[in-house]
Amino acid sequence: MLKPSGSWLWAAIMYFSYCILFQASYLSGLAATNPASTSQLTQSVVIGAIVYVIACIIMLLAFMANITELHGIEVPTLHLGAQISPFLGAIYGVILVAALYTTTAPLVWSVTNVLLRKNAVL
């Protein structure tokens, strides 16, 4: 399988920095403009992180169960979805393309939020 790094430790650090640190500015800006209480926002973030980790574990188990079949496949989740059903593979492909565009939304929101403040100094 293709690897993001030669070391599992560096791969984990890169994944953490992309998935967690990337969201930090978005979540802090959201907390500043959201009328919900801090405890509600904290609870939502914790629940979201737990659900995300569970989904990653399920995906990892699916990869491990089909490791020989997935060797050399660039998008293993799309391949597994198409193996279950071609229709499911097509639906997942559309979702995957949409996810590529929506992944940058928090970063764009964070930058525009800073730029559109009344007294923003650049």
UniProtKB/TrEMBL annotation:
Q: Does the keyword Membrane apply?
A: yes
Q: Where are the transmembrane segments?
A: 12-33, 45-67, 87-109
Protein origin, superkingdom: Bacteria
Q: Does the keyword Transmembrane helix apply?
A: yes
Keywords on record: Membrane, Transmembrane, Transmembrane helix
Its protein name is: Uncharacterized protein
Native source species: Brucella tritici
